[in-house]
Amino acid sequence: MTAGAGQTGVGAPAAESARNGVPADSPATRADAARTGGPADPSGLRQLAVDTLDANWEHDHTVPSRTLYPHQWSWDSAFIAIGLAHVRPERAWRELASLFRAQWADGRVPHIVFNPALRVGAYFPGPEMWRSADVPGAPAVATSGLVQPPVHALAALLAYRRAPDPAGLAALRRLYPALVAQQRYLADRRDVAGDGLVCVVHPWESGLDNSPAWDEPMAAVPAEAAVMSAYRRHDTAHADAAHRPTDLDYARYLAIVAAYRDHRYADRDLAAGHPFLVECPLFNAAFGAAEHALAEVAALVGGDPGPHRDRAAQITEALVRRLYDPDTGTFQPRDLRTDRLVGARTVLGLAPLILPDLPTRQVDALVVEARSARFGVARRMDRPLPTYDRTAPDFEPLRYWRGPSWLNIGWLIRRGLLTHGHPELAAGLRRSMVGLVAGAGCHEYFHPDTGAGLGSPAFSWTAALLLDLLAD
């Protein structure tokens, strides 16, 4: 996500909630009951997840939450489609189709698609900040100009696997060319260093907005906190400011957006002066995983899987060569402005586990890292996975991506552990994720030690990925 959300936690038990005007069958009430010993069984949690997704459905897509994210977000929709395929498969395909209708002519899939029915100012930064209508090749609907990790091909493949019927296959066949165009955009326009990896041009593109991984490259972005006096942040109106990115973070975010927007989102001159250029392990792992998924999709729809397999191998090789640090045994972002790896030990470094062709040496090193005191607990890994090194002096268990546990990241790492033959660790991680929702509801993110729900309640990708975990 790219901005704040309601921090209000789940309140009283179901009966008391009903007395206070909360419907007895609302997602919030179901979360209360699950937390207090009610339907914390799989069927109760499944119903909670379905109710959450139904409440957030918006005619052809799902909003991440009703509290602060009233539009459509790119990688949210991908994760949501995976969950919807278990219960509303036709919606899963509508979810992905609606997102890709906003694909730009150059192939980029914008990270926000704005709902034109909403008032100006319903979300910050809104269409008036991005001005996509001024850019040739942008779609008719207003969007941002950034992208997010390309988990969409994997989502489409998994949506079909969850509901393998003729309608799903037809939808997959229609979507395949757009998924290929998305990958082509990233390969052709965002390989700034010419090394086979994708460069993100804003922390929001990584999905982990204020991760400590971005502290060093962000420190070089010229911006003052006073810039924010011209704007009104919506996230801190719904959440404790101590749980959100700082005003200085936001000033720098806006400075980067303005720089990219004022160059009409052109990528050809990024190396000449764009203020933020980083090769992200998670983004590139998703980039490689997408080619693996597209190879399977191509085989399903009558295409040639060979080129996708070749590109996947090339991406994995480049990722190991450029972003793996043998001294720490983990992957780290590379700041292209300094051509140095960033030293912060974040969960981004574990993301390459999702690559099925990751070499054994790197897999073994990442498993050691995942089980270390920084991220896991010895053998079982059934403690919530933090987004940052628990042992670091600046670990912040409440502040967005600087410590809290998020289900989408845990879901990805679990998938990687299963891929590389660690079912016992994957099982522990699954227990921790299901336990978070059983204890606090479908929150946006969670305290990695207490399990308290943080951010927006009734959060869509949490509900969707819970459905996928329960189905296993």
From TrEMBL:
InterPro entries recorded: 6-hairpin_glycosidase_sf, 6hp_glycosidase-like_sf, Glycoside_hydrolase_63, MGH1-like_GH
Keyword Hydrolase: yes
Region span, Disordered: 1-45
Keywords: Glycosidase, Hydrolase
Record flagged with keyword Cell membrane: no
Residues of the Mannosylglycerate hydrolase MGH1-like glycoside hydrolase domain: 69-462
Similarity section: Belongs to the glycosyl hydrolase 63 family.
Annotated protein name in UniProt: Mannosylglycerate hydrolase MGH1-like glycoside hydrolase domain-containing protein
